[in-house]
């Protein structure tokens, strides 16, 4: 049988990215947490984490993390059904892309969190990267652009976020007075969410543009919007996020005929318990208020 105190220590050091912060989360000494990990590895006969160059779970460690997370979800279900066992607040660790967090996620989840009394622990990642968190056992669910789930999980199509290429009127006049062209794309500074932001390159691919281009890096969805409004660069902005700016004239659509729709899928553990099932049903019923229906979307090329 597994000793869940040992799994709790493994979850803590991986979630917190180190032994010291993991120990603080558990209110234990760093030495005590280290001893628990050593005992777990001794019982299993192989390592559960790689300590350098940065702490990461081994394949075995990932399987244990997945199991521990599912057990916590199932235990919460049991507490709901048998109050005599005690009380507990459930915390869901989920991975979500920054644009969803800045637009539809909060208004969609507000009522659910209030009714269920659930606490969220959100990890912000690009929608194409978040699935790695599921594969690594770090999260119980994620929003990503990939339909195929990892082993032991399921996925459901939520819809798509439509993106448009936006800039301030002044920036548009300076850099795109004659429209979007190879020469303009080569010279105009873009604003990217981060080095792994592939959406902008997908747009450039539509124009056959493969050359290097000047760009700012801004790891904030709201920051990208504010920088675009300030005329610092042009960017791919969710239509629902930039609609007010387009209506007021503070933003212009540089390429109205070429929006990009990015499909979003909700991934969750197959045996994650009633809470995850309820969250899935809620997302499927409420997401269409903000997202385009899956059958009405044009998928951006991979």
TrEMBL record:
All residue ranges annotated as the HTH lysR-type domain in the record: 2-58
Keywords: DNA-binding, Transcription, Transcription regulation
Record's keyword annotation contains NADP: no
InterPro entries the UniProt entry points to: ArgP, LTTR, LysR_HTH_N, LysR_subst-bd, WH-like_DNA-bd_sf, WH_DNA-bd_sf
GO molecular function: DNA binding
SUPFAM superfamilies per UniProt: Periplasmic binding protein-like II, Winged helix' DNA-binding domain
Superkingdom in the source lineage: Bacteria
Gene3D superfamilies found in the cross-reference section: 3.40.190.290, Winged helix-like DNA-binding domain superfamily/Winged helix DNA-binding domain
Pfam family name, one: HTH_1
Keyword DNA-binding listed: yes
PANTHER family: HTH-TYPE TRANSCRIPTIONAL REGULATOR ARGP (PTHR30579:SF2), TRANSCRIPTIONAL REGULATOR (PTHR30579)
UniProt similarity note: Belongs to the LysR transcriptional regulatory family.
Protein name: ArgP/LysG family DNA-binding transcriptional regulator
Record lineage: Bacteria, Pseudomonadati, Pseudomonadota, Gammaproteobacteria, Oceanospirillales
């Amino acid at each position: 049988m597994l000793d869940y105190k040992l799994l709790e220590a493994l979850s803590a050091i991986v979630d917190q990215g180190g032994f010291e912060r993991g120990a603080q989360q558990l209110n234990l000494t760093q030495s005590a947490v280290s001893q628990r990990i050593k005992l777990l590895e001794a019982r299993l006969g192989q390592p559960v984490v790689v300590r350098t160059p940065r702490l990461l779970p081994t394949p075995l460690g990932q399987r244990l993390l997945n199991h521990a997370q599912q057990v916590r979800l199932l235990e919460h279900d049991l507490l709901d059904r048998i109050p005599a066992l005690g009380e507990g607040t459930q915390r869901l660790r989920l991975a979500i892309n920054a644009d969803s967090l800045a637009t539809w996620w909060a208004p969609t989840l507000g009522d659910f969190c209030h009714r269920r009394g659930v606490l969220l622990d959100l990890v912000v990642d690009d929608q194409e990267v978040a699935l790695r968190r599921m594969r690594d056992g770090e999260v119980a669910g994620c929003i990503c652009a990939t339909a195929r789930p990892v082993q032991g999980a399921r996925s459901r199509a939520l819809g798509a976020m439509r993106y448009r290429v936006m800039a301030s009127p002044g920036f548009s006049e300076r850099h795109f007075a004659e429209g979007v062209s190879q020469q303009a794309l080569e010279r105009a500074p873009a604003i990217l969410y981060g080095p792994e932001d592939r959406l902008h390159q997908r747009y450039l691919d539509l124009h056959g543009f493969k050359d290097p281009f000047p760009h700012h890096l801004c790891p904030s969805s709201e920051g990208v919007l504010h920088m675009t409004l300030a005329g610092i660069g042009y960017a791919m902005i969710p239509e629902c996020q930039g609609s007010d700016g387009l209506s007021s004239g503070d933003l212009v659509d540089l390429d109205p005929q070429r929006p990009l729709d990015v499909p979003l899928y909700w991934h969750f553990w197959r045996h994650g318990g009633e809470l995850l099932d309820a969250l899935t049903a809620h997302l499927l019923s409420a997401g269409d208020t903000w997202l385009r229906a899956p059958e009405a979307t044009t998928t951006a090329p991979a």
